[in-house]
Amino acid sequence: MWWNTLIAVAVGAYGVVSSAHALLNKRDPRSTLGWVTLCLFLPAIGASLYWLIGNNRIRTRARAWHIHGRFELERKLATDEAESELATHHPEKAEIMRSLLATSLRVTGKPLLYGNRVEPLHNGEEAYPAMLEAIAGAERSIYLCTYIFDTDEAGLKFVDALAAAVERGVEVRVLVDAIGERYARPRVSRLLRKRGVRVARFLPLSPTLRGLRVNLRNHRKILVIDSKIGFTGGINLGQRHMLSDAKNRKPTADLHFRVTGPVAWVLEEVFWEDWHFSTGEEPDWSNLVIPEPTGEALCRGISDGPNEDLEQLQWIVVGALGCAHRRVQIVTPYFLPSRELLAALTGAALRGVDVEVILPDKNNQPLVAWACESTLPEVLQHGVRVYYQPPPFNHSKLMIIDDFYVLLGSANLDPRSLRFNFELNLEVFDPKLAGQLSSEFDRVRGASHEVSLEELEALSMPRRLRDGVAKLMSPYL
Questions:
Q1: Catalytic annotation, pick one of 21, 66, 219, 256
Q2: What are the tens digits of pLDDT across the range 409-442?
Q3: Is 276 annotated as catalytic?
Q4: Of 150, 177, 226, 403, which residue is the catalytic one?
Q5: Does residue 456 register a pLDDT over 50?
Q6: Is the C or the N end of the chain the one with fewer CB within 10 Å?
Q7: How do the domains of the chain map onto residue ranges?
C-alpha cells in the first residue's frame, strides 16, 4: 500500500537526517561512526536512540539551562595575589607550573584561591562522622548535593541529622540526582520531604525531551556548612562505604576531603548553580563574608559538565601531565582515557616521568573493566606502569604530580565523566597534602599486582575479542 511506502521513506529520511547531524556535530570519530552506522542500518531504533542519548543538544541545551547560574563568587578574590603566594612560598614549583596555571585560568576562568586547608578522609569510617559532626554544628546553612543517597543505615543517619538541623532553624537544602536516588528504596527525596527538609531532584525523568536526558547526570558530591566548611570528593552516602561492616555486601573504598578557607565558597557556588537550575531559586549573597584563611593550600575549583564550552577537566589533566617532571600517580576506578589523555600519559612516560596508575582488580562495572583491559597494552608499551589493587573495590579518583600538585574530586577518567556528567574537581597546590597522599599511594601500590604487557598478550583469544568489542563501546560507557 502507498502508506507503507510513505512510512518507509519517512523512516529512511529520519535515519539519514540523524546520521548527518552526527557527522556534523560529534567530535569523537569512533562515536560518530557508531551512530552513523546505527542510524543508517536501523533508522527507527538507531535514530531515536541518537536523539535521546547521543546528540550534541545535550551540550547546547545544558549550557542554556545553566547560563543564569553563573554567580561567580570568586570575583571578589584576587587571582594575582594567590599566584604571587605560590611564587613566594614555592618559587621553583611556581616556575615549573607556570604553563599549568595559565591553562587552568584560561580554561576555567576561575581564580586560584590562597589560604585553604584540605584534609583527606578515608572511607565512610572517617568521612561520615566528620560530615555528621559538621551538620550537627551548623548554625546558619547546610547545602548538600550527591549522586547516590542510600536509605540504609548510613544514609538514614544523614536524614536524621538534616531533619534535626531543620528543627533547630538551620536553612537546609538537599539536591539529589534523579537517577542516582533510584539505587535505594524508599527514595531519599520522599523521606526528606516527610521530615521537613527542602529537597530537589536533578533532571527527574519525564516524557519531555528534557526529562529523557538519561545521560546528563549530576555526579558531584558537595556538602557546605555555614559557607565555611566544605566536603567533596568521591564518596556517595550509603553503607557500602563502611568497610568495617561485616554485613556489607558491596564494600567500596573511597576518598573524601574536608576543605576550609575561601575554597568553601567555590563549593557553595557550584551547589547554587545546580539548585537554581533545578528549582529556579536564586541565592542571596548580600550577607556573605569571605571565609578566613585556614591553611596554606592554593585551590581552584573545576566545575565541569556538558554545559561547558570546553571539556575543562580533560584539558587541565593534559596540561598537568605536560608539567610533570618526576612522577605522576593516578588512582581511578574507571580508566578509559580519550586519545588526548592517552597521548599526554604516554608522552610523559616517554620523556622519563614515572607514570603509575592504580586500578581495581575487581571492577563493579564489567563492560568498563573489559574495555580498560583492551586499552592497557597501549600505555604499557610506552612505559606507563599499571597496578591492580585487590578488593575491596576502590572508587577513589586522584592524581598527584611531583609531590606538589593534587587533582581530586568526583570525576573518573572515562567518557561518561568527561563528557556527560556534571562533575566537581579541585586542583590543589600543597606539598603537605601531596606528600601525604603520595605516601598512601605507595602503600597501596606495594600491596597491588603490577600488570605486564606479556600478561595481557597471553590472554585467551576469546577474552581479547570480548575486550576489543567492549572497547568499541567505550564512547558510550
A1: 219
A2: 999 988 878 777 899 999 999 999 999 999 999 9
A3: no
A4: 226
A5: yes
A6: N
A7: 2-55, 121-298, 312-476
Q: Confirm whether 402 is a catalytic residue.
A: yes
**pLDDT (tens digit, 9 = 90+) per residue, 98-110?**
888 888 888 887 8
Question: pLDDT for 10-59, tens place per residue?
Answer: 777 877 877 887 787 776 676 777 777 887 877 777 677 776 666 655 45
Burial of residue 116 (number of CB atoms within 10 Å: 0-12, 13-18, 19+):
buried
Annotation marks residue 221 as catalytic = yes
For residue 439 the three cell numbers come to: 605516601
Indicate which residue of 221, 228, 241, 276 is catalytic: 221
Does 219 qualify as catalytic in the annotation?
A: yes
Specify the pLDDT at position 18.
77
Q: Cβ-count burial of 356 within 10 angstroms (0-12 exposed, 13-18 middle, 19+ buried)?
A: buried
Average pLDDT, rounded, for the chain: 87
Q: Are 203 and 211 in contact (CB under 8 A)?
A: yes
Catalytic residue among 402, 403, 414, 430: 402
Residue 276 to residues 43, 143, 200, 273, Cα–Cα distance (Å): 38, 13, 10, 5
Note whether 264 and 299 are within 8 A (CB).
Answer: no
> How far apart are the C-alpha atoms of 264 and 119, rounded to whole Å?
13
What is the maximal distance between C-alpha atoms in the chain?
81
The CATH number given to 121-298 is: 3.30.870.10
Position 292 pLDDT exceeds 70:
yes
Of residues 86, 109, 85, 159, the one with CA closest to residue 315: 109
Secondary structure letter of residue 255 according to DSSP: E
- The CA distance from 290 to 227, in Å, is 9
Residue 405 and residue 433: Cα distance in Å, rounded?
9
CATH classification number, 312-476, choose in 2.60.120.10, 3.40.50.720, 3.30.1330.40, 3.30.870.10: 3.30.870.10
Residue 395: active-site member = yes
Q: HSE (CB half, 13 Å, CA atoms) of 217?
A: 21
**Matching CATH topology for 121-298 and 312-476?**
yes
Kindly report whether the peptide bond that precedes residue 392 is cis, defined as omega within 30 degrees of 0. Answer: yes
Backbone angles phi, psi at 102, to 5 degrees: -65, -40
Distance CA 138, CA 193 (A): 20
By the 8 A CB rule, do 350 and 134 touch? no
